[in-house]
Amino acid sequence: MKINGNEIRPGNVIEHKGGLWAAVKVQSVKPGKGGAYAQVELKNLIDGTKLNERFRSSESVERVRVDTKDFQFLFQSDNMLTFMDNETYEQIELSAEFVGERAAFLQDGMAVTLELYEDKPIGINLPEQVTLEVTETEPTIKGQTAASSYKPALLENGVRTMVPPFVGVGEKIVVDTNEVTYVKRAES
């Protein structure tokens, strides 16, 4: 299935330069001059090598058709993540490196989708957004709330992100798992 270069998302598997590659990180770049492009960090699914590529929206890439199965995240032990197949209840272990930096967003019982190519796991899709508690951030200074500047915050899973000035310690916020960005306050 052909997709445009700007439609590549983390976890997508594409055919590129004669190999199967998984998109690990995707950053949309809109330079002052020229057209927008996606800066994509790719990981070879066979030998694990990494590659940084630019894909313009006018370029098309072949997204590999893979089987998808629903799994549930059970637990992490050392550097291994254990998932359970929702249909057969079989367990599968994957290295934390396979999931990448998004592994920090995994929560007990979380539903994920594994992409399989010839019954071998090659990609994982986490929920687009997760709710996490802010454990550390700077206090709000009165009168500064109108400023559009964001402040750094540490989340309960150890991930750092930027939050609006009105968000305080102990509040739950919704975070985008792909971009690691603040989306909104969580409804209580």
Concise summary:
With 188 residues, this protein is mainly β. It contains one helix and 16 strands.
Key features of this structure:
188 residues, mainly beta, 6-stranded antiparallel sheet, 5-stranded antiparallel sheet, 1 helix, 16 strands, flat
Provide structural commentary.
The chain is mainly β and 188 residues long. It contains one helix and 16 strands. The protein has one helix spanning 96-99; strands spanning 2-4, 13-16, 19-29, 37-44, 50-56, 60-63, 67-77, 80-85, 91-95, 111-117, 120-125, 129-137, 151-155, 160-163, 172-176, 181-185. A six-stranded antiparallel sheet has the order 1-6-2-3-4-5, with no helix packed on it. The chain is flat, with a radius of gyration of 19 Å. The chain starts with a strand and ends with a strand. The relative contact order is 0.14. The model has no long low-confidence stretch (mean pLDDT 85).
List the helices and strands and how they pair.
Elements: E1 2-4, E2 13-16, E3 19-29, E4 37-44, E5 50-56, E6 60-63, E7 67-77, E8 80-85, E9 91-95, H1 96-99, E10 111-117, E11 120-125, E12 129-137, E13 151-155, E14 160-163, E15 172-176, E16 181-185
How many beta-strand runs? 16
The number of helices is: 1
Give the SSE order as H and E letters: EEEEEEEEEHEEEEEEE
DSSP helix fraction: under 10%
Task: Outline the low-pLDDT stretches.
Answer: none
How confident is the prediction overall: mean pLDDT?
85
Percent of sequence in beta strands: over 45%
Structural class: mainly beta
Which overall shape is indicated by the principal axes computed on the Cα atoms?
flat
Largest sheet: 6 strands, antiparallel
Rg, alpha carbons: 19 Å
Kindly, what is the distance between the CA atoms of the first and last residues, rounded to a whole number of angstroms?
Answer: 41 Å
Strand order of the largest sheet: 1-6-2-3-4-5
